[in-house]
Amino acid sequence: NYMKDDNVSQETKNLITSLPSDKDFMGYGLYNYKGCWYYPNTLQAVLDVQKHFKPRDTDIILASLPKGGTTWLKSLIFAVVHREKYRGTPQTHPLLLQNPHDLVPFLEVELYANSQIPDLAKYSSPMIFSTHMHLQALREATTKACKTVYVCRGIKDTFVSGWHYRNMLHRTKMDQATFELMFDAYCRGVLLYGPYWEHVLSYWKGSLEAKENVLFMKYEEIIEEPRVQVKRLAEFLECPFTKEEEESGSVEEILKLCSLRNLSNLEVNKNGTTRIGVDSQVFFRKGEVGDWKNHLTPQMAKTFDEIIDYRLGDSGLIF
Ligand code: A3P
């Protein structure tokens, strides 16, 4: 129900009337608040996060665009941060029993959705939270001291993954016309949490300005050199792997635990439903780099490349 407006306060309704508006590719209204597109309910939740979310300095925030590698990073961060706790009893590891989304809750999608104000005192720190908000929006909450990990994925695979996600979610194959409408909307940046390039840029710049606070990771790099990237993650989170851990294969164990193959074959992820009511299995598909080649026409791929070149070409960010 996040596309709707049934959880919006009068104050937010007034705000919405003053915002630029457009429609998503399915015809639902989107509103641009400070450079980012939201559905009314999402905007309400984001405003509530900004007003009420007060993490502890030791808490960790994972930020991403939908389909950018959120599930993988949720599991990796959880596994890295809590590795000591389950060292002697790996068979009781929470990642074997719960979906990563239930271990690392979303702020605006779960905790602050539906006008809820959660009591964070019940969580022990470090708690890991997740968000799809862009960095400026996140900074309006009191999160400055928290370590923030961002995972970025190339626009073509992110888009194609989003297409499959929609199909799996609705258990139907949407037609080619819808694929093209979704593509056009993506190119215009008119989609929830979009434009893509503004989102990526906010965290890219943030990571350049404050390296100790914002870690910019790339999905493709984690696929390419998983050990290096997981060690980089642990260092950033101030829990680097010791020499003994490295020698005993702790990095590999974490990679194996969090691998798509392992997670997607667990009973909880095959047949379970996450707390936000989504079938757990829809978060796992191929997990490959370059699957866009099977779905985008050469012209579509070229258009995406040109957009990225135009929007991010002089940012220093290389895809
Ligand atoms: P594909 O649709 O390309 O396969 P998100 O977690 O942000 O919703 O992104 C989902 C994408 O990440 C999907 O990509 C999914 O298959 C992939 N993914 C999920 N879990 C993963 C894991 N443990 N390792 C690698 N990729 C994973």
Automatic annotation (TrEMBL):
One of its GO terms (molecular function) is sulfotransferase activity. InterPro entries: P-loop_NTPase, Sulfotransferase_dom. Its EC number is 2.8.2.-. It is an enzyme of class 2 (transferase). It comes from the Eukaryota. Keywords: Hydrolase, Transferase. Belongs to the sulfotransferase 1 family. Residues 57-316 form the Sulfotransferase domain. This is Sulfotransferase.
